[in-house]
């Protein structure tokens, strides 16, 4: 492959990874603050009638699925998915699609870092309303969810070209 043929995908990948890096930085910073400072000792901090700060360790994936899979399998899976999404990002057209992929990549890497460091993902955002209690989550989970919604939105309503 010629160098000019590689230039555009590499430029797209580089620009596309900026939001991923910001998500990763914000995710790891908030987790450090919660694990090292705020949640020593672990407790529940009521922020509003529907939002608490808690300390929960998720050994699985979303909604604590696959808790018995082990951190290394889930880490490998997360990093493999992030790698595949980076290949897609390098070829992706459209800002919304690139943002969606980047948010998912940043979140996946953020949670993979937790699994490597702690053997589990640090979750601390706790939302409950009208009798429903969502599982605790973190910045990486939020980025993955927003990215997935944008990905679906982009597939249903593609941006017009021209």
From TrEMBL:
<keyword id="KW-0472">Membrane</keyword>
<keyword id="KW-1133">Transmembrane helix</keyword>
<feature type="transmembrane region" description="Helical">
    <location>
        <begin position="97"/>
        <end position="113"/>
    </location>
</feature>
<dbReference type="GO" id="GO:0006508">
    <property type="term" value="P:proteolysis"/>
</dbReference>
<feature type="active site">
    <location>
        <position position="123"/>
    </location>
</feature>
<keyword id="KW-1003">Cell membrane</keyword>
<feature type="transmembrane region" description="Helical">
    <location>
        <begin position="72"/>
        <end position="90"/>
    </location>
</feature>
<dbReference type="Pfam" id="PF01252">
    <property type="entry name" value="Peptidase_A8"/>
</dbReference>
<keyword id="KW-0812">Transmembrane</keyword>
<protein>
    <recommendedName>
        <fullName>Lipoprotein signal peptidase</fullName>
        <ecNumber>3.4.23.36</ecNumber>
    </recommendedName>
</protein>
<feature type="active site">
    <location>
        <position position="141"/>
    </location>
</feature>
<keyword id="KW-0064">Aspartyl protease</keyword>
<keyword id="KW-0378">Hydrolase</keyword>
<dbReference type="InterPro" id="IPR001872">
    <property type="entry name" value="Peptidase_A8"/>
</dbReference>
<dbReference type="GO" id="GO:0004190">
    <property type="term" value="F:aspartic-type endopeptidase activity"/>
</dbReference>
<keyword id="KW-0645">Protease</keyword>
<feature type="transmembrane region" description="Helical">
    <location>
        <begin position="133"/>
        <end position="153"/>
    </location>
</feature>
<comment type="similarity">
    <text>Belongs to the peptidase A8 family.</text>
</comment>
<feature type="transmembrane region" description="Helical">
    <location>
        <begin position="20"/>
        <end position="40"/>
    </location>
</feature>
<dbReference type="GO" id="GO:0005886">
    <property type="term" value="C:plasma membrane"/>
</dbReference>
<comment type="pathway">
    <text>Protein modification; lipoprotein biosynthesis (signal peptide cleavage).</text>
</comment>
<comment type="function">
    <text>This protein specifically catalyzes the removal of signal peptides from prolipoproteins.</text>
</comment>
